């Protein structure tokens, strides 16, 4: 039986870790999908291609299409994109029933969509995915990057959106 006190302490502890809000998108034969994720990081800029890691809950509507399409874009949201984050997290209704109606987007090299207004969009091919508990730990090889001039990252921590300001 899971230790509910340990789980509660873990969740409370992790709420204190601030992170850039990220939406992962995919498109291809398995369909178009996207989800707001809380676990994303770069792995390396060196080697054959830069690599990134993202964790996606297996119950997410984006998990299966992402695995089958074998391509995805990691979109780092800008501070003004709270509504976009909430739509892709299913906290707000998707306009017209499609999350992608919440923001303009364009396909990158793999065909996966980059979200307009994102500070950075990393177009990735799926290198590996491992099921760990309730999540897929996904490694992607970056094949293209789209950058936005200006703006500040949308940050989430302490169970709310935060502003990133120089210290």
From TrEMBL:
InterPro entries: Flavin_Rdtase-like_dom, NADH-dep_flavin_reductase, Split_barrel_FMN-bd. SMART domains: Flavin_Reduct (SM00903). It holds the Pfam family Flavin_Reduct. Keywords: Oxidoreductase. SUPFAM superfamilies: FMN-binding split barrel. GO terms for biological process: pyrimidine nucleobase catabolic process. It comes from Thalassobacter stenotrophicus. Transmembrane segments: none annotated. Residues 14-163 form the Flavin reductase like domain. GO terms for molecular function: FMN binding; FMN reductase (NADH) activity; riboflavin reductase (NADPH) activity. This is FMN reductase (NADH) RutF. It is an enzyme of class 1 (oxidoreductase). Its EC number is 1.5.1.42.
């Amino acid at each position: 039986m899971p230790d509910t006190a340990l789980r509660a302490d873990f969740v409370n502890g992790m709420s204190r870790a601030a992170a850039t809000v990220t939406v992962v998108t995919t498109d291809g034969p398995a369909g178009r999908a996207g989800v707001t994720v809380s676990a994303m990081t770069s792995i390396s800029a060196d080697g054959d291609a830069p690599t990134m890691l993202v964790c996606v809950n297996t119950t997410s509507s984006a998990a299966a299409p992402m695995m089958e399409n074998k391509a995805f874009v990691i979109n780092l949201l800008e501070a003004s994109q709270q509504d976009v984050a909430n739509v892709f997290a299913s906290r707000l209704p998707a306009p017209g029933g499609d999350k992608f109606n919440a923001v303009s987007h364009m396909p990158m090299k793999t065909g996966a969509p980059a979200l307009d207004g994102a500070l950075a969009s990393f177009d990735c091919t799926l290198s590996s995915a491992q099921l760990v508990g309730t999540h897929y730990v996904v490694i992607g090889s970056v094949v293209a990057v789209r950058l936005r001039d200006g703006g500040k990252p949308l940050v989430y921590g302490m169970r709310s959106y935060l502003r990133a300001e120089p210290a």
